[in-house]
Amino acid sequence: xxxxxxxxxxxxxxxxxxxxxxxxxxxxxxxxxxxxxxxxxxxxxxxxxxxxxxxxxxxxxxxxxxxxxxxxxxxxxxxxxxxxxxxxxxxxxxxxxxxxxxxxxxxxxxxxxxxxxxxxxxxxxxxxxxxxxxxxxxxxxxxxx
Length: 145
Ligand code: ATP
Ligand code: MG
Hints:
145 residues; alpha+beta; 5 helices; 5 strands; globular; binds magnesium ion; histidine kinase
């Protein structure tokens, strides 16, 4: 699912000369809707692409623990001020920033991500530092749990 999402966005990644570092553990299997989970990955990657300057690196990583695994999509982009972070999963919420409004999104991407993750009984955590980058972590139960 992750590789497919990166594939879908390969043209956009190339156009911005972004480097994607993939560390995917093939042993991680989750129970869920492949189409919706791919949508989650696409939305997060689209954000990483949109809010990161050309030539930077986007890291896609999975790590498996005993009962659950975590997907991390991290960028070296513009970041999000702390007061906005709690709100960015709200529908139509966009940070009022010249660089983010120039390339118009609708502010729905993360709301959709949150809904899909909730439907899979997973958790979503966003960590960000303005001017340094953003990391989104999604934790989902392992298939055998
Ligand atoms: P779209 O509906 O096309 O996804 P969007 O990207 O504006 O539009 P969201 O994906 O929901 O909407 O993101 C909400 C807001 O959170 C964005 O407008 C942006 O301000 C901020 N944001 C989200 N991801 C990042 C990121 N990786 N780096 C910096 N800001 C981000
Ligand atoms: Mg988006």
